[in-house]
Predict the structure.
Amino acid sequence: MSTGRPLLEVENLKKHFPMTRGMMKEEIGRVRAVDGIDFTVHQGETFGLVGESGCGKSTAARTILRLEDPTAGSVYFDGDDITEYDKAALKRYRRNAQMIFQDPDSSFDPRMSVGESLEEPLIVHGMGDRSLRRHLVKDLLERVGLQAEDINRYPHEFSGGQKQRIGLARALILNPSMLVADEPVSALDVSVQAEILNLLDEFQDAFGLSIILISHNLGVVRHICDRVGVMYMGELVEVGRTEELFTDPKHPYTRSLISAIPSTDLDDRSQRVRLSGSVPDPADPPRGCRFHTRCPEVIPPDHYDLEQETWRSLMDFKQRVEERHLTIEQLYVMLYPDEDEEEMDVPESLPQEEVTSVLSGEYGLESGIGDRKAAEVFEATSGHLAAGDLETAIELLESEYRTVCQQETPPVTDEGPDHRSACHLRSEGAAPLSGESESVATD
Amino acid sequence: MSTDTDSKHADVTFEDIDWEEYDGAREFTPLMLAKILVLGGITLAWVLDWQFGSHRDPLFTVDPAGILEIAPNPGNVEWLFTLTIAVLFFYVVVPLYLNPRMTRHYWREFKKNKAAVVSLVFLGFIFLLAVFGPFIFGRPEIDITNAYQPPVFAGGTWAHPFGTMQSGEDVFQIVIIGARVSMMVGLIGCLMIIVLASAVGTTAAYFGGMVDEVLMRFVDIMLTFPTFFLILYVVFLYGGDLFTIILILGLTTWTATSRLVRSEALQRNEEQYIDAAKNVGAGERWIITRHLVPNVSNTIITAATLVIPSLILYEAVLAFLGFGDPNVWSWGRAISVGRSDLQNAWWIATMPGVFLFLTVLAFNFLGDALRDALDPRHE
């Protein structure tokens, strides 16, 4: 980790994929795969990007390498904005920034021998001397732990680990200064993973490579990264030095990821943070903090005196209603689960008492809500639902169960040197909202 | 192969390379040079012939051994046939020779189908007959005194092993010329289909979006094109010469194959090696020609091989109906001519008919076996 200007600076990078419909390619929405991320990578540093599948980390990597054109934002490599590169400059950039692919089986052309695959970068960049090319390839094959004779063999003749070594060789042969490794070991056996990671480490030391490592495996990330960025739904929720981030995570999402690392310690298992719900649709991300729909630490309003878990359950209930799931038919099925769906005869309204109790059971609220005001709202809502009045129920929940997490985008908070997070819990003005907010109107 | 040049670069490793000095350089291998010389030479000769050869005078004569004339102008279709054979040599025979392991693998798969092996031998024989036959056995000529000679196994003589026609032309020579015509139609048409279908199919799949839309809608329009009526129209206006008929057949039958190629290329396009190639800086043309086309070649070769018999039959039908080239003895024309004499001279229509039948059958067997050998998904 040297000081001075970073090798790579990513500023407010966005990549949206438009969803189109029909002949006229009318845009009906866009998937916000990467939605404004900032980070830097220094010379010789390993930066980890973690997050669950579909959070946009691979898209971020592909955009940084200009395999995709960014929707907005800038990527500075050695001071130049690569998003403005023309064809020739881009080709030069490709020599400096290389990629290791996730799937060793599909990242090699099955019709090319290893030699041809490895010579390809050299030919593309104008090295016409075949004997020199083959010499370089053989030399590099030996340095990644294979044999020079392997140059004439075909990809299917190698094991996954060997192919990933060849993948590393292909990424190195142009002598780049930055490597992007997209899940480089997730397709491999655990025993082979360590070999590949050590090899990567060796080459990093030898050539001062900067590495961006993309992984959902936090163990791997903790092992080899200097700094880590945690992504959730296209945004970076926390960035910091690895040790700091792992020992003192500031964002609830980071905490839940870290607690999900498999552990042999039985005590540790009980503390695992479970996330409710599934990842929201990236085409329609939740407003406010994108994690609020699953966050175990979602902030309750000031005037409620509630257990955190109860508030989480109430928020789950609210989301369910807002998604228009608890219709009278669905409630009827919940009340009378044994009845045949074919012969169902759903009445205009359902008994309110029973609906309230079945909903309490569904959301784990049998032991009481704790706060009198919150409980009244819950009962009133289930009353509206029992009467089949979904709209009033939504309105009531919207005005009563408010959380700053849903109302406002969390600001980025500095957590000390080189450590920042984006969470309302960490920001100064974390005071819960009361009264009207503009984001209600935008919905 | 592995130690030949190591001493020259003994201490060079990849981190010593100064890439600035290589920017934009290109490589020429002897094979590429040979391709350019041969294919360019044939094309050049064709253009020269087309420009200056129309008067059919000998370009020069050499005297010592009698008069040896070199008088070109074999006609467009002969040039195109020569070019096709050269292309087949460079893009089929040479790669098979250079990759003996791949060749052995495909041969092992291919020879499981015994009918196909017999077909291959038969087609090889027909091909040699078509290419060299006319120069060895001569071309059929009218000889009224020799009309209706029966074939040798029905009481005829070895002078005319397959008998003669009503104007005395030798049926054996007609079969050989017909083989040449059929091979021309099949191979030239097949090559045109391969080139057009793979170019359009892979380009559409690789670029997607507007390019895909425009190319595929064009293919849709071409698919509805009435080839038969186009040929009738051209024959009516300009007279049906074989070159024109082959061109029309080739230009109108590639569309179905290009759809197959596109759908296959769409799948290949999602593979990571395409990204890997982009990521090392390869351009669009490089990726399409070096990665997409080779990886969809199974589909292309199989589809194109199975098109050959239908092209040959198409030409035979046209000739039979009298829309073929009147200067060329194709099998279809011979069958048509012999039709009225089936009662007294059955061999006139039967001999070319048997060859047409066997050739089409052999190409079908060959196509099926190639599909099994090259395209494991169909098993």
